[in-house]
Specification:
This protein has 483 residues and is mainly alpha-helical. It has a single domain, classed as Amino acid/polyamine transporter I (Up-down Bundle). 72% of the residues lie in helices and 2% in strands. The chain has 18 helices and two strands. The protein has helices spanning 2-9, 21-33, 36-77, 84-92, 94-126, 145-164, 166-194, 212-221, 224-228, 233-236, 248-274, 278-281, 287-296, 299-333, 352-401, 414-432, 444-466, 471-479; strands at residues 134-138, 141-144. It has a two-stranded antiparallel ribbon. A hairpin with a 2-residue loop joins strand 1 (134-138) and strand 2 (141-144). Helix 2 runs parallel beside helix 11 (248-274) and helix 6 packs across helix 7.
C-alpha cells in the first residue's frame, strides 16, 4: 500500500507545450502595455511635461531592465510553471517560495476583474450609442448594463480560451498584440505628420525650479514601475514552451518586452504632446484619444486609439490570467497550497481548478464596479514588486550556492543582478515609507494585503500539516528535472 502511494505521488501533473518564442514576446509586450496608457497618459504630462515623461519612461525602462535580467537568467535555467515560485524554492526553500507565490497571485489575480470592469467603459466610449441607464451604484461607481454584460462576456471568452488550451490563449495574445502595435503605428504617423514640435513647449512641467528637468523626470519615474509590470508573465508560463524551443530565447523575450513597452510609452507621450499645445491637451477627457479629434478633427483617429486600448486590455487581461493560474497551479502541484489547485484537465492539459478559482474572482468584477476594486488594485503594485524582489534575491543567491547550474542566458556581470535587487528593494520602500508619494493608504490598503497573506498562510500551514509530500517529492513537483 505504501509502495503504491509512493508511485502515485511521484507522478507530476503536466501542462501542454505549445508556445513559441514569438508567442512569449507577445505575452510579455501585450501584458505590459495593457490599457492604462489611454486612461492616465495625460497625468504623465502634468507630472513631467512631454520631455520629462519621455525621458522618465526611457530611464525607467533601463532600470526595470536590471530586474528583467534577473528573470532572463533564471527563466531558461528553471523553465517550469510558476517561475518565481521555483526560483524562490531552489534558492531558499518552501517558505520563501510560498511568499513569492502568494504575493504574485494577488497581483495577477486582482488585475483580472479590473480589466473586466474596464471593458464596458471602453465600449461605451467607442460606441456612445450603447450607453445604458445605471442599474445600481457601488460607492461612486455607476454600474450599467453594458459594463456588466461587456465584462462578463469578455471574461467568459478569456476563461474559455484558457481552459481549452495554451495554444488558443497564445494565439489570442499574439494576434491582439500585433494588431495593437500596428494600430499604434498608424496613429503615431498621424501625430508626427500633422502635429508640431512647438506644441511640446515647455518641455518640462516644473518651470521656475532650480532643476526643472530632474524634478519633472522624477515626477513621472515614480509611476513607471506600475506601467511596466507584465514582463514577469513570461517565466510563469515557461514550462509550456515547445519541446524544440531554444531556452535562451525565453531570457531574450523578457528583455525585449521591457524595452519595447518602454519605447511604446515614450512614443505615446510624444504623440499626445505634438498634436496640440500640451497644456491644453491635459484639460481634455481621455486626452490620448480626444487630442486627435480636437487637434485635427480626426474622429476616426480618436476611435482608433480607443480600439488600440481595447486590444491592450485584452492582451493584459489574457496575460495576467495566464500568469495567475500558473502560479496557483505550481503551488498546488508543489505542496505549498491545497492539492486541488495542482490538478490539470486530462483533455486540454490546462490547470482546470486554478482557472476556476481565478475565474470566480474575475467574474465578480463587473458586478462590484471600479470603486470597490481601486484599493485592491493599488495593493497589486506592492505585491508584484515584492515578487520581483524575491526573484532578484534568488538570482543573486543561486549564483553563490549553485554556480554550476546551467544558465542558457547568463548575465555577464553579477553586479547587474545586485543592481536589480537594489532597484526592486527601492521600489518596495517607495510604496511603504511614510511620506512617499506612492505610499499605500493606511490602514485600508495594508489591511487588504495583511488579510490576503493571512488567508494564504492558513492554506500553506494546512497543506504542510497534511504531510502528504516529502521534501524530495516537493522539490521534484516544483522543479521537475531542474531540482
Amino acid at each position: 500500500m505504501k509502495e503504491e502511494k509512493a508511485v502515485k505521488s511521484s507522478q507530476r501533473q503536466a501542462l501542454g507545450k505549445a508556445m513559441s518564442y514569438f508567442d512569449y514576446l507577445n505575452l510579455g509586450i501585450g501584458s505590459i502595455i495593457g490599457v492604462g496608457w489611454v486612461i492616465v497618459a495625460g497625468d504623465w504630462l502634468v507630472r513631467g511635461g512631454p520631455l520629462g515623461a519621455i525621458l522618465a519612461f526611457i530611464i525607467g525602462g533601463f532600470l526595470i531592465t536590471t530586474i528583467g535580467l534577473c528573470y532572463a537568467e533564471l527563466t531558461p535555467a528553471i523553465p517550469v510553471a510558476g517561475g518565481t515560485v521555483a526560483f524562490g524554492y531552489k534558492a531558499f526553500g518552501s517558505g520563501v517560495s510560498f511568499l513569492a507565490a502568494w504575493f504574485l497571485s494577488f497581483g495577477y489575480i486582482f488585475i483580472c476583474p479590473f480589466e473586466a470592469v474596464a471593458i464596458g467603459w471602453l465600449i461605451e466610449y467607442l460606441i456612445p450609442g450603447l450607453k445604458s441607464q445605471t442599474l445600481y451604484t457601488v460607492g461612486t461607481y455607476q454600474v450599467s448594463l453594458v459594463s456588466v454584460v461587456g465584462g462578463v462576456v469578455l471574461s467568459l471568452f478569456i476563461i474559455g480560451l484558457n481552459y481549452r488550451g495554451i495554444k488558443y490563449a497564445a494565439r489570442l495574445q499574439t494576434v491582439s498584440t500585433v494588431l495593437m502595435i500596428l494600430c499604434a503605428v498608424v496613429f503615431t504617423v498621424v501625430a508626427v505628420w500633422k502635429g508640431s514640435l512647438s506644441n511640446m513647449l515647455p518641455l518640462f512641467a516644473r518651470e521656475g525650479t532650480n532643476w526643472p528637468a530632474l524634478g519633472s523626470i522624477i515626477g513621472v519615474l515614480g509611476v513607471v514601475p506600475f506601467f511596466m509590470s507584465g514582463f514577469d508573465t513570461i517565466p510563469q508560463t515557461a514550462e509550456e514552451s515547445k519541446n524544440n524551443a531554444n531556452l535562451q530565447n525565453l531570457g531574450k523575450a523578457v528583455i525585449i518586452s521591457i524595452i519595447s513597452a518602454s519605447l511604446f510609452y515614450a512614443v505615446v507621450a510624444m504623440d499626445i504632446a505634438v498634436c496640440m499645445p500640451w497644456k491644453e491637451t491635459i484639460k481634455l477627457e481621455l486626452p490620448t484619444a480626444t487630442v486627435f479629434r480636437v487637434g485635427f478633427g480626426y474622429q476616426w483617429a480618436a476611435q482608433l486609439v480607443i480600439f488600440t486600448a481595447l486590444l491592450g486590455l485584452i492582451t493584459s487581461f489574457n496575460g495576467f490570467f495566464l500568469a495567475a493560474t500558473r502560479v496557483l497551479f505550481s503551488t498546488g502541484r508543489g505542496g505549498l497550497l491545497p492539492h486541488k489547485l495542482g490538478v490539470t484537465s486530462k483533455k486540454y492539459q490546462t490547470p482546470k481548478n486554478a482557472i476556476l478559482f481565478v475565474s470566480l474572482i474575475t467574474l465578480a468584477g463587473p458586478f462590484i464596479g471600479r470603486s470597490s476594486l481601486l484599493p485592491i488594485i493599488n495593493v497589486t503594485s506592492l505585491a508584484l514588486v515584492c515578487g520581483w524582489f524575491i526573484a532578484c534575491l534568488s538570482a543573486v543567491r543561486l549564483r553563490k550556492i549553485h554556480p554550476e547550474m546551467k544558465r542558457p542566458y547568463k548575465v555577464k556581470s553579477r553586479i547587474v543582478l545586485y543592481f536589480g535587487l537594489m532597484i526592486s528593494g527601492a521600489l518596495i520602500l517607495l510604496l511603504v515609507l511614510p511620506g512617499s508619494p506612492a505610499q499605500l493608504k493606511w490602514p485600508g490598503e495594508y489591511l487588504i494585503l495583511a488579510g490576503w497573506l493571512l488567508l494564504g498562510f492558513i492554506g500553506y500551514r494546512w497543506r504542510k500539516a497534511k504531510k502528504d509530500m516529502s521534501d524530495e517529492e516537493r522539490a521534484f513537483q516544483i522543479l521537475g528535472d531542474y531540482r
